[in-house]
Amino acid sequence: MSSDLILYSYWRSSAAFRVRIALNLKGLRYETRAVHLVRDGGEQHALPYAALNPQELVPTLLDGERVITQSMAMLEYLDETRPQPPLLPADAAGRARVRALSQAVACDIHPIGNLRVLQRLGAQFDADDEQKALWMRHWVASGFHALETMLAGSAQTGRYCHGDVPGMADACLVPQVYNARRWNVPLEDYPTLLRIDAACAELDAFREALPERQPDAPSNR
Amino acid sequence: MSSDLILYSYWRSSAAFRVRIALNLKGLRYETRAVHLVRDGGEQHALPYAALNPQELVPTLLDGERVITQSMAMLEYLDETRPQPPLLPADAAGRARVRALSQAVACDIHPIGNLRVLQRLGAQFDADDEQKALWMRHWVASGFHALETMLAGSAQTGRYCHGDVPGMADACLVPQVYNARRWNVPLEDYPTLLRIDAACAELDAFREALPERQPDAPSNR
């Protein structure tokens, strides 16, 4: 079954990075199909990809005939169809905690600093690179401050975001920390986030999902 | 059990509106505690609320001793702890479709037009009300265009977003349509969204969740 998994991905997309981590954590083999978000005005806006994903965003996951959009829906889908090892804990309260940590990134940090939002800041407000970086740093700092409080203040935080097993929240956090470094966001105020990020960096599932390891990364082409 | 549910809410918050719909669809009684997002610089930024929700966002759900943040985590939690009637279909592919439709709103429309983002556009780019409205209309139009394609093009769309039973995707769509009307977004290009919104408007669960029906709405105070 897993040999039919195809991920439409862009090496530097945080959302695709999340799904790569989840696929790797579950030991699933998949084929990467690159969608270049910048070249030629963005391949995500052109057919045939735009027919698969009407939002014209990456990633898109194919499981045989099934077409799945939205990275967080993919993580839930993979956990339902390939339950071992799980991305979510077994208890409802723990699942709610992990989903809330995940969504603090996936709803409240990442979409506001997405490529298309930065492009829109340029088009509507004539924002230059420095102003875009200021925007990014504001939202990452605000989100990371909250996440640090949520993680440092909870006995349920372990080596990873929830206990000592990596899962959904880690798959969301690590790409956002990677992205923050790219934008030179100061990170010294978030020791728990950095500790968890470092623990994840020791795992092959996270290392092999890194942007620079992807077949469409500039260094690999 | 359900008598212990407390929702920290703001009448006009789309995310709180979603959770009110879900609670109503399940027939759960809950206590509303109002958090005023604007008065005194925003009660969400002050104690005691900010200790419950380190992101300083509404809503927050209390289930007895359990504190749950993030509206989409609340919907999943309610569906796991009070399964009937379900907010998600039973099959993994259907669940992925409903989650993707939901997240197309909850990740890719709503957070980009949130109050705090509009405030930031004012602070960083000196955006006035007209520019904020233009920003809102851009993101709602882009998201609704994709949702219209996803819904109109699928045989799984029924009276509601997924078949003939209202659920999670409807609980996300209806507050976003309400919000679009508030910002005077032209909606004539989205006939399927409008049809589903009208079908939902016939249901008490949606009507009773409307912002103007909430105890903290200005007309009720």
From TrEMBL, chains A, B:
Gene3D superfamilies: 1.20.1050.10, Glutaredoxin. It comes from the Bacteria. The keyword Isomerase applies. It is an enzyme of class 5 (isomerase). Residues 3-86 form the GST N-terminal domain. The keyword Lipoprotein does not apply. Keywords: Isomerase. It holds the Pfam family GST_N_3. Coiled coil: none annotated. GO terms for molecular function: maleylacetoacetate isomerase activity. InterPro entries: Glutathione-S-Trfase_C-like, Glutathione-S-Trfase_C_sf, Glutathione_S-Trfase, Glutathione_S-Trfase_N, GST_Zeta, GST_Zeta_C, GST_Zeta_N, Thioredoxin-like_sf. Its EC number is 5.2.1.2. Residues 91-219 form the GST C-terminal domain. Belongs to the GST superfamily. Zeta family. This is Maleylacetoacetate isomerase. The gene is maiA.
